[in-house]
Design brief:
The structure holds 2 protein chains of 2 kinds. Chain A contains 10 helices and no strands. Chain A is an all-alpha fold. In chain A, helix 2 (15-36) runs antiparallel to helix 3 (41-72), helix 3 (41-72) runs antiparallel to helix 8 (160-175) and helix 9 runs antiparallel to helix 10. The longest helix of chain A has 33 residues, at 212-244. Chain A is globular. Chain B has 2 domains: 32-141, Macroglobulin (MG2) domain (Immunoglobulin-like, Sandwich), CATH 2.60.40; 151-177. In chain B, strand 4 (78-86) and strand 5 form a beta hairpin. The chains are: A mainly alpha, B alpha+beta.
């Protein structure tokens, strides 16, 4: 492709503008927190990394919702645009997750050696690191060349997004003190259930018969949602009990 | 009929998902600071409820969640004190009280009269054998609300930036014609 046609290709596609949106949102989150906590650098850093973490989860949710939403509602406008947007949304999730991890590790954990930390933090960090590796591996293979080179392995790798989402929620609940508050729990569990139902509906409506692997994957994700919900509410009750004493 | 009901119920679910997502975005604004400090094998994360915004002239509630690398740490074995200092001068101190039924969760309450930067010191002395620990946290005590909400200019500039991006994206994508009846990559 010539320079001109490459420029035309990118300018006429949605991904470039989503990339611009990622940069704009990053700057706005920083600016919002810098104004709000201008007199307190510790609070600024802490709120910033938590904001990045939540935004990463939201972008991941958007990337997960587009496919089943358009299969169930084929008349929704912008189908081709949104399907093309998915990869950049995934890259956005990986970007915000990386910022979250970087700021949290450097500021909250003061770049401590993970091996020297208590098991509680090691577990939380390990879960976060696994989710981040999954997101980054998908982000780095989210271009057409990688898709052609990897063949069927590309699809296998990118299906890890479901495992990544489950592990990211587990990470948030295990180490994020405010992820077990009622607004966060209701939001995360509610969204997970809606996404799960969407995927079940898609599987039931597909033309070819549902495969054993699909049934297994859906069962595993369903069980993971039940277990994580129970875990989150247990932690919430535990914190409530502590506060009440 | 059944398929229409199914479609309607799915629309309700999608709307609910949107509301839930927006709620998640809103709730991210209510989180607060938790800084880990360590001394040898002992670590603790400090939190000042409800929003890590201590005020001068009011009691500062300090919650501590302890942990240790060897896994044997329990507050029962320590006499733990909480101090608040400025430039090395002790201003107030209190006992760190273990929460009932918890071996590693504790709280204490101190107070200062003036706003400014202070050092919270958590010092534990073993009741029998063992190693003592000292954890130091820098906190800022405000005279009032220490958060400044972004003004109208913040919202105007950012709304303009997003609108511009949206208009340019819509215009360029429409002109590009890349998505007209053509399948795209996965």
């Amino acid at each position: 492709m010539s320079m001109r046609s490459t420029a035309r290709h990118w300018l006429g596609g949605i991904r470039l503008y989503i990339a611009a949106g990622i940069i704009l949102l990053t700057y706005q989150l920083w600016q919002w927190n810098a104004i709000t906590y201008k007199d307190n650098s510790e609070l600024l850093a802490s709120h910033l990394h938590e904001s990045f973490g939540w935004v990463a989860l939201m972008w991941l949710t958007a990337a997960l919702a587009i496919g089943p939403a358009y299969r169930l509602f084929p008349k929704l406008p912008g189908k081709l645009v949104m399907r093309d947007a998915r990869r950049m949304l995934g890259i956005g999730a990986a970007w915000f997750a990386s910022l979250h991890a970087g700021v949290a590790y450097i500021v909250s954990f003061q770049a401590a050696n993970p091996l020297s930390l208590a098991t509680y933090y090691q577990k939380g960090m390990l879960l976060g690191a696994i989710a981040l590796i999954i997101l980054l591996s998908m982000a780095f293979t989210s271009f057409d060349g990688a898709m052609r080179t990897m063949g069927p392995w590309w699809f296998k790798l990118h299906r890890l997004i479901y495992a990544g989402a489950v592990i990211a929620i587990w990470h948030a609940m295990s180490i994020g003190v405010h992820a077990t508050g009622i607004p966060a729990l209701v939001s995360v569990i509610g969204t997970s259930i809606v996404l799960f139902v969407l995927h079940i509906q898609v599987a039931l409506r597909q033309e070819k018969p549902i495969t054993e692997m699909q049934v297994l994957a859906l069962c595993l994700v369903g069980i993971a949602i039940i277990v994580l919900s129970n875990y989150g509410f247990q932690l919430h009750l535990d914190q409530y009990a502590r506060g009440a004493r | 009929m059944a398929s229409r009901i199914r479609k309607q119920s799915m629309r309700v679910l999608v709307t609910a998902a949107t509301v839930v997502l927006l709620t998640a975005g809103w709730s991210s604004d209510t989180v607060s600071a938790h800084i880990l400090e360590s001394d040898g094998p002992v670590s603790a994360v400090m939190h000042m409820p409800p929003d890590d915004n201590p005020q001068a002239g009011k009691p500062i509630d300090v919650n501590l969640s302890f942990s240790s690398t060897d896994g044997n740490f329990t507050l029962i074995n320590y006499d733990t004190k909480l101090r608040i200092e400025r430039d090395g001068q002790l201003l107030d101190q209190a006992d760190v009280t273990r929460k009932d039924g918890y071996e590693r969760e504790a709280s204490g309450e101190v107070e200062v009269a003036e706003p400014g930067a202070y050092t919270l010191v958590v010092a534990g002395t073993p009741q029998s054998a063992g190693r003592s620990f000292t954890l130091r946290y820098t906190i800022r005590v405000s005279g009032g609300e220490n958060r400044t909400r972004p003004g109208a200019d913040f919202w105007i500039i950012n709304a303009t930036a997003w609108s511009l991006l949206g208009v340019v994206a819509y215009r360029m994508v429409s002109l590009g014609g890349r998505y007209r009846g053509k399948p795209t990559g996965r």
